[in-house]
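Annex B.
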Amino acid sequence: YRKKALWVSWFSIVVTLALAIAAFTVSVMRFSASAFGFAFDAILDVLSSAIVLWRYSNAAAVHSAHREYIACVILGVIFLLSSICIVVKAIHDLSTRLLPEVDDFLFSVSVLSGILCSVLAVLKFLLGKVLTSRALITDGFNSLVGGVMGFSILLSAEVFKHNASIWYLDGSIGVLIGLTIFAYGVKLLVDTVPRVRQTRHYEMFE
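Transmembrane protein 163: predicted structure tokens.
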């Protein structure tokens, strides 16, 4: 299962990096706040998968609680930084009344992102449960957020196409997802920071 976790993490890094580049391109070309939010979340997914790679790179440390909590603390910090950037960008787009443009490129990236990130989330949740790894489950949560954001780009674009008065849906979803990531990051830090020192002393004693 450790090797499966490593393979899933490598696959996640390659896929989400490609999706991040595509989503950044969409956000610049089509002025989409949720596409920018997804691109940022995809980069966060790359980083969180890299942390999971570090977590399971040492076979002898598979059951190391200290290593697990360090990984969770780093993930928590990345979540906070990412959420702030997503919320600031979405609020800026709402305040300047930035209207999203809709085309086939945006549609393709949205559908592909939603499907791939959802599949990655399921794989990470299953492996995280087997390995009892909060870091892997957190990585799965991040992929799930990416999947939701992928479909939300499509939803807000379709709504705007049929009703131009609901132009604010795109930015609102960006704010909501940014706040969700922020809340999860805070909870992760509150739960794991105190345990880093405890487990270090305990494992050194062992």
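Helices lie at 2-30, 33-56, 65-95, 104-130, 134-162, 169-205. The CA atoms of residues 55 and 67 lie 6 Å apart. Further annotation is deferred to the next reporting cycle.
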